[in-house]
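User: Predict the full complex structure for these chains.
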Amino acid sequence: MIPISRRNVVVAGLLSLAAFPLKAAAAEVLTFDTLYESFGVLGLKFSAQVLALKDRPIVISGYMAPPLRAESDFFVLTKNPLSICPFCQSDADWPLDILVVYLSEASPLVTAGAKVMVTGSLEIGSYIDPDSGFVSQLRVRNAAYRKA
Amino acid sequence: MKFSYPLLASLIGLACVAPASAQVIYPLNRAEILAGSKFDLKVEFPGVVARDKVSVMLNGVDAVKALGGTLEFMDKEDGQEASSYLLRNVMIDKAGTYTVEAKAGDASSKVNWIVFDTPKGKMAKNVILFIGDGMSVAQRTAARMLSKGIEEGKYKGDLAMDDMPYMALVSTSGSDSVVTDSANSMSAYTSGHKTCVNALGVYCSRAKDNLDHPKVETISELVKRKQGLSVGVVTNSEIEDATPAGMVSHTRKRADYNDIVRMFYNVKPDIIMGGGSPNFLPKATLGSKRTDEDNYIEKFKAEGYSFVSTATEMRAASQAGATKMLGLFNTGNVDGAYDQKFKKGTTGKFPDQPDLAEQTKIAIDALSKNEKGFVLMVESSRIDKYAHSLDWERSVYDTILLDNAVQVAKDYAVKHGDTLVIVVADHTHMVGIIGTYNDDLPGTTPREHLETYQNSKFPDYKPDANGYPETVDLKRRLAFTFGSYPDHCFDAKPHLEGEFAPAAAGSVKGTYVANETYCTLGSVKVVGNLPTDANSGVHSADDVILTATGPGSEMFHGRLDNTFVFRAMATALGLAKN
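Assistant: Here is the predicted structure of the two-chain assembly.
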């Protein structure tokens, strides 16, 4: 057992891992809490903010889920750090409120598990990833990310 | 009633050790099969064999002649270089010992089965089976301490599940492994056959398709087919999760949620309540997890089910006299008792979720309208889920939740003496109470605050009218420990704001590291004792405790295999007859 001190809980890393636009001024900030207007047993409804931001630049922070591959143009952004790995375990399930992030170019996804800030264009509608078969309703396209 | 079959079974078992790479026969050796229940007979040959070189005999008679049915002979099963013999949906009506011998050329193997009768006929009209998922001795002990209180070493009261006349130890290992999972163990309770991890209502064969494995009939199918009983499945997990799915399902993989919804629809338990609505919604609906456009909520409604999504709607449907109800109260699992009491978890999104005890009452009210009787399974699922996440207070609150539901069933059974009530876990976790933590002791780390032996004074949990402590954040509280864990940060304090998530995905794919959220001042970083791909605690193979009351409950004593729970229920209901 190693007692935790203030010293080793310092959040590390300002390293930009993909070309993260320094000027995200035009991008509107989205949060996981405001993605849906209603979230019920009979389904979800996107919020007015999400619908208004269709195909427009946004910035959102969340946690990078464990990726399928170490280097990819594709990862899943979640509200909380995932304590399960749906890609790894057959009976683990994704939360409903996830965002799929398509990076503008494939890059090493070394920050899995870390909090990241993502910018890109918000895309709405059902889409099946041709490589993985992963189905998504909400995506960030032409995205870049950095550690938050 | 005392069966002498275990001795017989072990004797005949000795004669049936199959040589390596011999034919594999399903049901496996020493299977116990209810007379008149359906099963698939499958023989897997190690290589390709010609149909006319194969013989499969049941007590010396060609199996097709003896059992009927249509033989499916697969020259190269699923493209594999091996042949298989399959007879689906067969049954044996007469009790006794049966030997199946499969021969192909010089190679042969055989298994013995015990086909059992239910000689006393119908002893119980109703069976209520409670599953405390993952409930081990320590959760029971803690639930008693928190909800009843303890003074000078004596409890101030018993749990409803303690106060039952019969008790047994139940062993839970599966056909493939020492440690079981909830699918495999529930399958043993609902079919009487042991199978392997992740499997429901099937033996694990070499079939490639999850749905092609040799099936065995579940208690829901049996009681509906043979006796016209009503069936209820009530849980606070997703309804597609392993334990509730075990009532109706036949699949090699418990993760086949969409198939499991279809299987619920095929079997049609009269009362279905739990979480997990996304697999009922058509693909086009935002939030659906289906891959087709089937709308199972509408399909159930078309079959006369009242659909309810809140506790208020559930009560209204009950008052309107509904006898068929589909209740889906959350997109995921229904919030546990702690989060419902303190408005945490997903209660913001789902503010009107029901309580398992009330659901039990409403289910019994509906099912008991069937004069022929009913079988009801009620699961408190999150005892296990919170044990996986090393969150003992939530696990124990849900043990109290289970006990409140058991009290409802006992109250019914007092008035209806023809009701067998069984309370059992499906597997254990490695948990134990080793003393108390006392924040008033000097130091900041958990071990400095730990009191053992004579220093472990009785904590003063103050239960409300339902047995739930008003707070668990006591200065002196139980030291409830977990024996298997991933890397995590530990501060020996309750997680008041939300369920503990000990580990988070690491940067190396498939590995987990301590969730840094909890690595605060006063916590210690505990190096996991599980492989690095584990994100939570794991099940253990320790026997579980079963208690029972009502007609047939006297069958439970000593040490039993989990398959015996099915046999006892079938015997109490007289299921071999009709």
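The domain at 126-430+538-573 of chain B is CATH 3.40.720.10 (Alkaline Phosphatase, subunit A).
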